[in-house]
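fyi for ur records
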Amino acid sequence: MSTVKLESPAADTQEIAEPSKPTYTAKSRKRFNVREEKRIKRRRDNNYREKREDSRGSNRFQFRKEFNGRGKYQEESPRTSSSRSPRQLSQKTGDSRQVVDRMSMDRVSSMSHCHKMGRCYDASSQHSNEIVSHLEHGIEMVTEKLENIRNSIEDVETSVDTSIPTDIETTVAHLVDSLKDLDSLFTGYYENTKMLKTMQHPEANRFYRRVKKQQRRQKAHLDRLTTQILVRLHLRKDILENQRQVLFSGVDECISWIRAETEKLTAIMERPEKSNTLKDVFEEHELENRKIQDFRRKVDECIARQDEVSADCSADY
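which gave:
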């Protein structure tokens, strides 16, 4: 360091050390610049934070958009109440009242809409409950009908080989008509299940499966009547017809033979003058008597087999 001599009238010459200028290297200058940048950034952040807090408190940095009549929106900085005229203040007050009235009207309309939606929901819920009760009652009724028809079919199957065919045919036709009458009910039940699906009812799929199950039972009973019982009935009718032809054909032949022989005897008895031929007639009569005895045995055989003849053919027999 260099020394400087100072002359003072009151004191002697003193030597004062003069400070030397700091020397900066590239590395130290870089660190200094980084610290300065951080300090400036920190100061900027603090200023931004203070402005943001002020804007939240006094709404100084909020802007409102108003329609200027030319199809555009323009932004205006908010003004204080002291800088506005009474006319502007009254206009703003009227606008505020309109906004409040609109908000109250919106609230009332929303409440009325909620009440309306509630009434609609109650009506829809009541309608769905009516549909559910209708389906429950209808499915139970169909189940009972199908059960009665099944019992009747079993009775017909047990008596198809012993009862009169005409009675069996009448019973089968009545059962088939009863099963076909259920088609209209199933159509209505499917429409009801479709309405429940539209209403998103949780029991819609379960009711659909129940109706489908009842319809499958109906088709099974129809197939049982038309393809099994009627086939057995037609076979039995053919068998009875063959038995009738076999039994009555022999009886018809015997009756026709008796008629022919009685006509011969009547013709001979009307002419007693032909005594020469009486001997021959008696001989023939003996032969015919043997044939009559044979016929008698056949008649007895037919009487013994009377139980094999069906009831509808017994009158003719």
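The chain has seven helices and four strands. thats all i got for now
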